[in-house]
Design a protein that fits this description.
This protein has 444 residues and is of the alpha+beta class. The chain has 14 helices and 6 strands. Strands 3-2-1-6-5-4 form a 6-stranded antiparallel β-sheet, sandwiched between helices.
Length: 444
């Protein structure tokens, strides 16, 4: 455990000790040479026989050579130690920087595990997170990686439990001789735990998990390994807590969005399913534009809530176009106040702008309109013309002889083409009409 004092020198202390040895050797050689020089200055060479002179010179030469050899060896060892430590520090700093950019919990835990193994030279390892009164194994690597994910143990069980309960590091050379060791997982995997390094993942609120490394590949875990892993664990815990918060926020957003969409479908009969169909058509165009995944997610969320402003309008009381048009501004005002909807608020605001500048509410022209808004404008118009519940359903405008889904589909396509360059972005219309299929309409 960490109370073994024999190997408690930190890497800085080790380098300092080696440099002291080097300095002592250099001083010894200098003093010896000075002594011999002084002796020769006060002694007549005539009184020294040739063999004695040769012997003295040989001793001096031997001391110089030996001193240089030992000094070079000690210096090289010190430099090697520093270089190794520098490499591990660089790995640590690079890894902690990369961790801050990972927003998905499973990917983050995998990254933490791989980096911890690399930093310490461990053969295997695992990460367990606290869930209520238990430790749940989230990721395992190396010899322990044998269908362990998801198993849980009482928070107080085993060495990992002790580290979690006490918030303290544990470093053991022979785990099986430790009274806290629980061999159950070794029995499950057939993997033998020998040396072990266990570090708690702590934030201000307390311990949120355990980072456990097993069997250092060359020998046993050192004080240096513990120091590095402790710092790494502090950074990892912050990243895990941040990711958990983001995932909770995303879950909250998903549930809230579902509630809002269902409310819109209930509030406006003519728009039942409209938002989801608009999202489907919009993502089809986004795929053809090779839009990045994060942009697609933003577009999808904007599609679902593009008509949310209607929740503040009683359609039966609407007496003018201006009152109807207000829904985009109302939607913007609602969404901009909510942190996780703020990014889609401008898209919602401008989804009724026209490409020629005659739209609302700001009469934006061409590419000044957000591309997501231009996409939604086309998808919404197409759905309005092809949805049977819509007041713009083109089937109502066709002769009975032509009254069919196929006729309505082709009529809507022609309307989009006719208004390309005026109401709609012509490039996006081309993409839409070249990729839309009647089967998508039937699925909608």
């Amino acid at each position: 455990m960490t109370d073994k004092t024999e190997d408690k020198k930190s890497v800085v202390e080790a380098v300092r000790h080696q440099i002291k040895i080097l300095n002592g050797i250099v001083l010894l050689v200098v003093y010896a040479l000075l002594f011999l020089i002084v002796r020769f200055l006060y002694t007549f060479l005539d009184h020294i026989s040739t063999p004695s002179l040769v012997t003295i010179l040989s001793i001096v030469a031997g001391l110089v050579i030996m001193g240089m050899y030992v000094a070079n060896t000690a210096s090289k060892k010190a430099v090697d130690t520093i270089e190794k430590y520098t490499y591990r520090l660089n790995t640590l700093l690079t890894t902690t920087k990369d961790m801050r950019e990972i927003v998905y919990g499973d990917l983050l835990l995998e990254s933490i595990m791989e980096s911890a193994v690399k930093i310490t030279g461990a053969d295997a390892g695992s990460i367990m997170l606290v869930e209520k009164d238990r430790l749940v194994l989230k990721v395992a690597k190396g010899g322990r990686n044998a269908n362990l994910q998801g198993i849980s143990i009482p928070k107080s069980a085993g060495i990992a439990g002790w580290a979690a309960e006490n918030g303290s590091n544990v470093r053991i050379e022979d785990a099986r001789n430790d009274s806290r060791f629980d061999p159950e997982i070794d029995t499950m995997t057939g993997y033998e735990t020998k040396s072990l390094l266990c570090v708690p993942l702590k934030v201000k609120a307390g311990t949120i998990g355990i980072l456990e490394l097993i069997n250092e590949q060359n020998s046993v875990f050192t004080q240096e390994d513990e120091e590095l892993l402790s710092y790494f664990a502090d950074q990892a815990a912050i990243s895990i807590a941040r990711t958990q918060f983001l995932e909770d926020q995303r879950n909250y957003e998903i549930h809230l969005t579902d509630i809002l969409v269902d409310t819109m479908d209930t509030h406006i009969h003519e728009k039942v399913g409209h938002s989801k169909r608009v999202a489907k058509y919009s993502l089809m165009m986004a795929d053809e534009l090779n839009m990045p995944e994060d942009k697609k997610r933003t577009l999808y969320r904007a599609c679902l809530l593009h008509d949310i402003g209607f929740l503040k309008i009683k359609l039966k009381d609407v007496t003018s176009k201006e009152q109807y048009k207000a829904h985009s501004q109302l939607g913007y005002n609602m969404l901009k106040l909510i942190n996780f909807y703020a990014d889609i608020a401008p898209i919602v605001l401008h989804h009724h702008e026209r490409y020629d500048g005659n739209g609302y509410p700001n009469e934006l022209i061409g590419n000044a309109i957000p591309v997501e808004s231009r996409i939604i404008a086309i998808a919404e118009a197409f759905d309005a013309m092809t949805s049977r519940d819509s007041y713009k359903y083109v089937g109502k405008m066709l002769d009975k002889a032509e009254h069919s889904p196929t006729a309505g589909f082709h009529y809507a396509i022609e309307e989009l083409k006719k208004n390309a360059g005026t109401q709609f972005d012509p490039n996006l219309v081309d993409i839409f009409v070249n990729n839309i299929d009647e089967s998508l309409l039937e699925e909608a």
